TrEMBL record:
GO terms for molecular function: DNA binding. Residues 24-79 form the HTH cro/C1-type domain. The lineage of its organism: Bacteria, Bacillati, Cyanobacteriota, Cyanophyceae, Oscillatoriophycideae. It holds the Pfam family HTH_26. It comes from Microcystis aeruginosa NIES-3804. Gene3D superfamilies: lambda repressor-like DNA-binding domains. This is Transcriptional regulator, XRE family protein.
Length: 85
């Protein structure tokens, strides 16, 4: 979707920051995977997976995100939830 500048400005809450929360733990549970197993299968470092599971993120690593989305055969909006806080 391409927005006009004014539309994008209305959507952005300038008093809050955008954070990304991972649905990774739920996706892993559905497949019965541990952090180590997911790391082995995707090539994403265990420390990165732990960080994604633990907390809110201000930015996403596109390579890790791409590998995880491909592995789980999901779209980015299924892998992450965006919230203004």
């Amino acid at each position: 979707m391409i927005w006009e500048t004014s539309e994008a400005e209305e959507w952005i809450d300038k008093e809050k920051e955008l954070y990304f929360y991972s649905n990774l733990e739920a996706l892993m549970a559905e497949k019965g995977l541990s952090i180590a197993e997911l790391s082995d299968r995707t090539g994403v470092a265990q420390s990165t997976i732990r960080s994604l599971i633990r907390g809110r993120l201000k930015r996403l690593d596109s390579i890790s995100t791409g590998k995880l989305a491909q592995f789980f055969e999901c779209k980015l909006d299924e892998l992450y939830v965006m919230k203004w806080e």
